[in-house]
């Protein structure tokens, strides 16, 4: 339970353990259904979701999606466990951590949005050509401990012969929302950070994007959609409709240019100029981070488990069947127009 003490949601988790699932037979939801969706952060990394919002795909499925920027994996997981959210968008590890405790109403991963890490390495000076070994001896401003971005960062560094904390200083004292400002103010030699913050640092002349972590980590079960088993049982039809809209968003991103995608999601990023948004989407497409469909593959889940174990977050492999239900995504794809 050490992980959950760090997140500060032990009480909520214990509540999940003792409460009954409250499951009943699934029945189709009639009329417009309001779905409360909390995302871990608001980023162009989740472009297919925003395409579904701006292009009316959710509305065509009879859904009104209330989107909340949860500002962190711990916060969105808390929202789901406390009943404030129906669905959350966060790393696959969160369901694994919760379900390891055998709750009466477990969390379920039912769809995948992204298939690779979407963070970038930003350095204070250009590093061209970039070589991971050149990070030796530097200060690496990292992501929150225990989250997938952190574990991907450690995995990639080790892959290139660098031990965090030994071969380079691995800094984890800054929370997610303040990584960009901290780096701009002088903390760290490099920072692992997501868009649009990476481009903001570049635009201010305070750093240079030198590498994408996704291609080095390979495909994993990355940012995914999670719900509670009780909600899935009661509103299976809603989740199929939701996932069908996400699939259409994924297909749009797969088949359209960065410029077209940027224009489609621009309403979600007011204040960001179209050129910057296009450059961000181009980087993400080049790194092949977007899921081509919502199916959560077993092999990518197993790679995720390997990374969790490599980071000592799990003692034993957690079964796919206890964390993932691929039937929602399969039905959504089979019934997609």
How are the SSEs ordered, and which strands pair?
Layout lengths: L1 H6 L2 H9 L14 E7 L7 H8 L2 H4 L2 E7 L3 H10 L4 E5 L1 H7 L7 E6 L7 E4 L15 E3 L6 H12 L9 E3 L7 H6 L5 E4 L3 H7 L4 E5 L1 H4 L5 E6 H6 L1 H20 L2 H8 L8 H13 L11 H13 L16 H8 L3
Parallel strand pairs: 1-2, 1-3, 6-7, 6-8
Antiparallel strand pairs: 3-10, 4-10, 5-8, 5-9
Describe the protein.
This protein has 337 residues and is an alpha/beta fold. 42% of the residues lie in helices and 15% in strands. The chain contains 16 helices and ten strands. Strands 2-1-3-10-4 form a five-stranded mixed sheet, sandwiched between helices. Helix 7 links the parallel strand 6 and strand 7. Helix 3 crosses helix 12. It is globular.
CATH class value of the largest domain: Alpha Beta
Report helical residue fraction: 40-55%
Catalogue the unreliable spans.
Answer: 1-6, 16-27
Would you identify the CATH H-level superfamily of the largest domain?
Periplasmic binding protein-like II
Task: Note the run of SSEs as H and E.
Answer: HHEHHEHEHEEEHEHEHEHEHHHHHH
Which class best fits the helix and strand makeup?
A: alpha/beta
User: What is the second-level CATH architecture of the largest domain?
Assistant: 3-Layer(aba) Sandwich
Q: What's the rounded overall pLDDT mean?
A: 92
Q: What oligomeric state best describes the polypeptide chains here?
A: single chain
Largest sheet: 5 strands, mixed
Strand order in the sheet with the most strands = 2-1-3-10-4
Number of helices: 16
Rg result:
19 Å
Shape estimate: globular
- Approximately what portion of the residues adopt beta-strand conformation? 5-15%
Determine the N-to-C terminus distance: 44 Å
């Amino acid at each position: 339970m050490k992980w959950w003490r760090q997140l500060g949601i032990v009480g909520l988790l214990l509540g999940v353990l003792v409460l009954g699932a409250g499951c009943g037979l699934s029945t189709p939801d009639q009329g417009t259904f309001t779905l409360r969706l909390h995302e871990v952060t608001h980023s162009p990394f989740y472009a297919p979701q925003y395409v579904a919002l701006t292009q009316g795909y959710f509305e065509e499925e009879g859904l009104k999606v209330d989107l909340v920027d949860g500002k962190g994996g711990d916060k969105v997981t808390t929202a789901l466990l406390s009943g404030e959210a129906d669905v959350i968008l966060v790393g696959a590890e969160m369901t694994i951590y919760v379900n390891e405790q055998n709750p009466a109403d477990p969390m379920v991963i039912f769809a995948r949005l992204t298939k690779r890490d979407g963070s970038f390495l930003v350095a204070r000076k250009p590093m061209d050509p970039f070589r991971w070994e050149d990070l030796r001896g530097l200060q690496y401003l990292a992501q929150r401990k225990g989250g997938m971005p952190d574990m991907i960062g450690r995995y990639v560094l080790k892959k290139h012969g660098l031990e965090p904390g030994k071969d380079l200083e691995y800094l984890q004292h800054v929370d997610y929302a303040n990584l960009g400002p901290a780096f701009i103010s002088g903390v760290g030699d490099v920072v692992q950070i997501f868009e649009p913050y990476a481009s903001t640092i570049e635009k201010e002349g305070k750093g240079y994007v030198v590498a994408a972590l996704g291609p080095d980590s390979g495909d994993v079960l990355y940012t995914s959609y999670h719900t509670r088993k009780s909600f899935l049982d009661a509103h299976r039809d809603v989740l199929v409709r939701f996932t069908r809209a996400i699939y259409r968003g994924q297909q749009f991103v797969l088949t359209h240019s960065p410029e077209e995608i940027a224009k489609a999601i621009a309403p979600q990023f007011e204040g960001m100029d179209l050129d910057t948004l296009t450059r961000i989407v181009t980087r993400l497409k080049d790194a092949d981070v977007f899921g081509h469909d919502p199916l959560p593959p077993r092999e990518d889940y197993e790679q995720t488990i390997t990374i969790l174990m490599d980071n000592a977050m799990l003692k034993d492999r957690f079964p796919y069947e206890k964390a993932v239900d691929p039937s929602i995504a399969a039905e959504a794809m089979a019934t997609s127009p």
